[in-house]
């Protein structure tokens, strides 16, 4: 099999910006309300979007935002159980819009890539750097690196990490069954605090989305696109051969990473924020993967929602 050579990307280290965008919308039922939008506009989002929304989106809109972020599976559960009723919901896997959220429509607005971020100031991080893009799995198998990852039952990054490990086992000729060998329960951290573990020295490396490493200036190993879940060319014949079953019983298949968002409150201020959220240049600036296919709309989109791309 021809292999695309990965690479190690280096970035200057900078102080982690700690964002604490916590807000709770009223716990009201229903999927789409014609009531006046509350002020500020509330967004319940994937943890990997938190930094971009707080530092990229918020300064570009004219209305105040209340942002709360969790793993996307947790976001879906909070809404499904009636514990949250945000104006806008944005998740890291559009499969969650099939179930349990099941909105009448949504916009797929960005992609991403799974990378292996590491701390070069620790001995384990140095081992990861030395292993590089072609041998990164060796120190993980040898237990020479303290690894962080997210919980697959709570967010897509967690189960996508398992997909990457499984695909890497097939991609590299001498790799063992990495999905069976590498994961342990002690590696699990919340998505919103995963990379901050570098600051405390708790971990040497972590499976993360590319934007999470880019926006914080962390060094990372860029994986071959056959295993980083960023390339639609490998959607059917390769990525889809992996799967994970959530506690709800929903089976999620591997596929190209797609972020999706929808509106739950029909108000002009909400529609304005939504349009900027799904088309703003802040996405590219914070390391997300964009392309001509975004934004893409699925379902019965209301006539009040713009489906045209805007520029910042």
Radius of gyration from the CA trace?
A: 19 Å
Q: What series of H and E elements makes up the topology? A: EEHEHEEEHHEHHHEHEEEEHHE
Major sheet summary line = 6 strands, mixed
Quote the distance from N terminus to C terminus.
42 Å
- Poorly predicted residue ranges: 1-8, 10-35
| Helix content, binned percent | 25-40%
Helix vs. strand class:
alpha+beta
Mean pLDDT, to the nearest integer, reads 86
Q: What is the overall number of helices? A: 10
How does the overall form come out from the CA principal axes? globular
How many β-strand runs?
13
* Beta content: 15-25%
Physical arrangement of strands within the biggest beta sheet: 3-2-4-12-5-13
General description of the model:
- This protein has 312 residues and is of the alpha+beta class.
- The strands form 3 sheets. The protein has a 6-stranded mixed beta sheet. The protein has a 5-stranded mixed beta sheet with strand order 1-9-6-8-7. A two-stranded antiparallel ribbon has the order 10-11.
- The chain is globular and about 55 Å long.
């Amino acid at each position: 099999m021809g292999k695309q050579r990965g690479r190690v990307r280096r970035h200057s280290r900078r102080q982690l910006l700690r964002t604490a965008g916590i807000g709770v919308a009223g716990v009201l039922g229903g999927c789409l309300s014609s009531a006046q939008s509350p002020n500020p506009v509330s967004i319940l989002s994937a943890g990997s979007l938190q930094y971009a929304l707080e530092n990229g989106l918020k300064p570009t809109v004219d209305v105040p935002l209340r942002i709360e972020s969790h793993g996307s599976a947790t976001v879906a559960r909070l809404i499904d159980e009636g514990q949250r009723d945000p104006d806008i919901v944005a998740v890291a896997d559009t499969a969650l819009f099939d179930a349990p959220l099941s909105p009448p429509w949504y916009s797929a607005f960005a992609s991403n890539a799974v990378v292996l971020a590491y701390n070069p100031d620790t001995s384990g991080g140095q081992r990861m750097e030395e292993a590089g893009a072609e041998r990164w799995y060796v120190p993980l198998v040898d237990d020479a690196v303290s690894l962080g990852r997210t919980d697959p039952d709570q967010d897509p990054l967690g189960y996508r990490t398992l997909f990457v490990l499984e695909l890497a086992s097939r991609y590299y000729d001498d790799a063992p069954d990495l999905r069976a060998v590498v994961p342990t329960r002690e590696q699990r951290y919340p998505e919103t605090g995963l990379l901050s573990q570098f600051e405390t020295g708790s971990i040497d490396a972590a499976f993360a989305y590319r934007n999470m490493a880019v926006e914080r200036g962390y060094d990372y190993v860029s994986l071959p696109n056959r295993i980083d879940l960023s390339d639609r060319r490998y959607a059917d014949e390769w990525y889809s051969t992996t799967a994970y079953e959530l506690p709800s019983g929903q089976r999620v298949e591997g596929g190209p990473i797609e972020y999706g968002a929808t509106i739950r409150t029909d108000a002009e201020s909400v529609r304005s924020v939504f349009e900027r959220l799904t088309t703003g240049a802040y996405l590219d600036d914070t390391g997300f993967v964009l392309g001509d296919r975004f934004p893409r709309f699925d379902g019965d989109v209301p006539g009040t929602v713009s489906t045209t791309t805007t520029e910042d």
